[in-house]
């Protein structure tokens, strides 16, 4: 083989090797990892201030919670602080309204609960329980309805599970002063008098 032929063959091999190295591969390359979903921004203090919700109930010193809500601690919509539900509600009958910003019947019922709370005064604690993780939309919804009731965020539906309520909304949970469960109301109230009558029958408190 002549030297020129040898060098020509070497050149051909180099060209073929380069082409193979640069040739696009079908499905051999690892897939580009997906970017993690952006986490929701924390709710701004300004948005909480604009909602102007009443402060969440707090436990009196030495209060020990009991009943199905014992051990459940949730964040307060008004300021993000923690609320030990059973301890905070101890000593007074309570109405917990489970709702969500996307629930139409809930939007109809919340203003009724606001009016009932005004009538009941200190005789019954009325607390809203937002059963969805989106706190910002909960605050916006309450502001739009002009409902300033105290509320907590129950992203994992712990209250609903604790009282063994069905997966529907709205639901009202009536709790006795000793923390025991009086009634789970699985329907939308028709008016303030309906709320008052239901609470009176279950808790013995007339407002």
UniProtKB/TrEMBL annotation:
Localization per record: Cell envelope
Main location class: other
Cross-referenced CDD domains: TlpA_like_family (cd02966)
Ranges annotated as spanning the membrane: 7-24
InterPro entries for this protein: Redoxin, Thioredoxin-like_sf, Thioredoxin_CS, Thioredoxin_domain, Thioredoxin_ResA/DsbE_sf
One GO cellular component term: cell envelope
Short name of any one Pfam family annotated for the protein: Redoxin
A molecular-function term among this protein's GO annotations: oxidoreductase activity
Domain (Thioredoxin): residue spans on this chain: 48-204
SUPFAM superfamilies, A to Z: Thioredoxin-like
PANTHER family given in the database record: THIOL:DISULFIDE INTERCHANGE PROTEIN DSBE
Listed name of the protein: Thiol-disulfide isomerase/thioredoxin
The organism of origin for this protein: Nocardia puris
